[in-house]
């Protein structure tokens, strides 16, 4: 069983409420895409629910095979780009500041440290310190791992 939640749902219901409602955190992912929340059980049933602007919540149970197949394909594609619930909650709403985003942008562009530092208006030593701080923050030991982790979390 997998549960795919929108980040809007998590923000609306709050951290503690989401953790209480959904205790199987390893099988829950959160996406920034504007989607219905989706729960698929054994590819045989799917529950979809969302808050419709201007009215109350709406929910649907899907059992028809062709429609279920479409919902499943959509959910699988979205699942792979979504963050695990624990990662989403750990990051909170703060995300990355402008400097961190700029450093990650330079790293993803493959810029050399000196070039990246110059474009950010800092010394190469300061730039390397920013990179080291990001590596610590994301608990990785190489720049490659940093890029992979940031991509996995959908932050860049």
Automatic annotation (TrEMBL):
GO terms for biological process: regulation of DNA-templated transcription. Residues 93-150 form the HTH luxR-type domain. GO terms for molecular function: DNA binding. It comes from the Bacteria. This is HTH luxR-type domain-containing protein.
């Amino acid at each position: 069983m997998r549960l795919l939640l929108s980040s809007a749902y998590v923000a609306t219901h709050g951290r503690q409420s989401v953790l209480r409602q959904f205790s199987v955190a390893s099988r829950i992912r959160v996406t920034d895409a504007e989607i219905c929340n989706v729960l698929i059980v054994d590819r045989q049933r799917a529950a979809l629910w969302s808050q419709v602007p201007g009215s109350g919540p709406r929910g649907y149970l899907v059992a028809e095979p062709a429609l279920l197949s479409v919902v499943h394909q959509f959910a699988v594609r979205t699942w792979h780009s979504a963050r695990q619930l624990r990662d989403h909650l750990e990051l909170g709403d703060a995300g990355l500041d402008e400097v961190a985003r700029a450093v990650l942008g330079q790293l993803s562009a493959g810029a050399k440290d000196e070039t990246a530092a110059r474009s950010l208006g800092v010394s190469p030593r300061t730039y390397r310190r920013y990179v080291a701080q990001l590596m610590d923050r994301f608990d990785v030991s190489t720049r490659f791992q940093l890029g992979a982790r940031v991509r996995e979390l959908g932050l860049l």
